[in-house]
Amino acid sequence: MTAARTSTPADRPQPGLRERKKIKTREAIRTATYALIKEQGYDATTIDQIAERAEVSPSTVFRYFPTKEDIVLTDEYDPVLLEELRARPADEPWAQSVRYVMQEAVRTGMEEDPEVARIRTHLLAQVPAVRSRMMESMSVTGRMFATAVAERTGLDPDSLEVRVHTMSLIGGLMETSMYWAEHGHEGDFPALLDRALDVLQNGLTVENP
């Protein structure tokens, strides 16, 4: 999910050595990619250059990320976001749970690496291939959110209502990210996300002419 990360609770089991090595490799590839993009732009950055900078083989890059676009779009945090939703109080209104978790994820991501958040959202807004790949990947995240909705509400995760609701949330986050980038990353991103969530929760406020 674009520009969203969340912290790891202390009581969550930590990954084993093999998984930690995988995460370290993925992070090395991402770091190399962001550095090259900053130096020479997205289009000029090749998989071979990324592999050389990350000190891995091109085949390793492709094993972790099927496309160059995936490198800047994917992270380790969608499953964590789902866990955070599951950890919210059972009697808490669903809209409040979603707002809390998404805001915490965004704030954490901005605090950890604001430059990466800006690069990712800039690419989403400016590079058609990145935006197209994001549209493709949204359904995966949508299914994860639908699972959380079903667990909380008892609704069918494949029902039209749940699918529309979850994809509206993800689409809203994507549009907020693009809006932020298109306006020169001015303003507070969590505040923009709050505005987007208000629209999804309450609808548009239209003044009569």
Care to describe what's here?
72% of the residues lie in helices and 0% in strands. The chain has helices at 17-40, 47-54, 58-64, 68-73, 78-87, 94-112, 114-126, 128-153, 160-182, 189-202. Helix 5 (78-87) runs parallel beside helix 8. It is globular.
Unreliable residue runs: 2-11
Radius of gyration: 18 Å
Give the N-terminus to C-terminus distance in angstroms: 38 Å
What structural class is derived from the secondary structure elements?
mainly alpha
What's the multimeric state?
single chain
DSSP strand tally: 0
SSE string, helix = H, strand = E? HHHHHHHHHH
Largest pleated sheet: none
Overall pLDDT, averaged? 86
Instruction: Count every helix, treating DSSP H or I runs of 4 or more residues as helices.
Output: 10
Proportion of residues in β-strands: under 5%
| Helical content class | over 70%
Q: So what's the overall shape?
A: globular
List the helices and strands and how they pair.
Layout (H helix, E strand, L loop, with lengths): L16 H24 L6 H8 L3 H7 L3 H6 L4 H10 L6 H19 L1 H13 L1 H26 L6 H23 L6 H14 L7
Name some characteristics of this structure:
72% helix, disordered N terminus, mainly alpha, single chain
Short note summarizing the structure:
The chain has 209 residues and is mainly α.
